[in-house]
Amino acid sequence: MERPVALVVARDPAVRSLVSDEYEDRGFLAFGAENVADARDTLGTQAVSLLLIDLESVGTSADELIVYAQRLRPQPLMVGLDPAGDGRGVTEAMRGHLFDLAPKPIERDRIDRLCRRSLAQLDTLSELRRLQSDLQSREGYLGLVGRSDSMERVRSRIESLGWRGDGVWIVGEPGTGKELTARVLHALSLIHI
User: Fold this and answer.
1) Using CA atoms, how far apart are residues 105 and 181, in angstroms rounded to an integer?
2) How many CA within 13 A on the CB side of residue 38?
3) CA within 13 Å, CB half, 190
4) Which residues of 39-69 are buried (b: 16+ CB within 10 A; e: fewer)?
5) How far is CA 148 from CA 80, 95, 139, 144, 145, in A?
6) Tell me: the pLDDT tens digits for 37-84?
7) Residue 40: its pLDDT value, please?
8) What is the pTM of this model?
9) pLDDT exceeding 70 applies to what percent of the chain?
10) What is the mean predicted confidence (pLDDT) over 89-99?
């Protein structure tokens, strides 16, 4: 599996270093950016999985960076490093797009917990993208084309019959796919022997 990329946006080099080091220890490839312009440059060249923004040092430009990051595909998971630790430094525009807020001052144990939570969330998002891709590729699944509810019911029924391995009688008008259905059932029954 490819290493996830973390980008830490903070003016203070000590904050960038501490957070980056902790994420590197957890298997991330970590970059630092001193300001929004540097962050946008990195986001333009790297597939960033996790974006950590020091809300205090970035200031009002944090909103701009979050809006920019929302347009990326895949969109990075975003975390705010909050100076007050209570969310007061977070605008309404940010609130719905931040995965988490980490209170400052930054402490290793807090960053460690945040890192573990971030990895778990990234795994969940990766699995969700995989499942969405699988679902979208169902069109043409085993040669059966179509995305309607009735077509999904046909696929489901064929799959359940394929598992059982019982004899099946297929009836229908000419051109409705009886032969294709028989081939799919036969293929599924061989898989499930």
Assistant:
1) 63
2) 12
3) 5
4) bbebbeeeebbbbbbbbbbbeebbbebbeeb
5) 42, 37, 10, 11, 10
6) 999 999 999 899 999 998 887 777 888 888 898 888 888 999 888 776
7) 93
8) 0.64
9) 83
10) 69
Distance CA 60, CA 89 (A): 10
CA angle 73, 69, 17 (to 5 degrees): 115
Give Cα separations from 161 to 47, 131, 165, 176, 188 (angstroms). 43, 24, 7, 19, 9
Q: Given pLDDT bands bounded at 50, 70 and 90, which one contains residue 151?
A: confident
Amino acid at 138: R
Place of tokens 């991330």: 28
User: pLDDT category, 163, cuts 50, 70, 90?
Assistant: low
Q: Is-contact 54 10, C-beta < 8 A?
A: yes
- 139: Cβ contacts below 8 Å, ≥ 6 apart: 145, 146, 147
Q: Which of 102, 86, 87, 13 is nearest to 50 (CA)?
A: 102
In 3D space, the residue among 97, 22, 86, 113 whose CA is nearest the CA of residue 53 turns out to be 97
Cα–Cα distance measured from residue 57 to residue 10, given in angstroms and rounded to the nearest whole number: 6
Q: Is the distance from CB of 144 to CB of 54 less than 8 angstroms? A: no
Average pLDDT, rounded, for the chain: 82
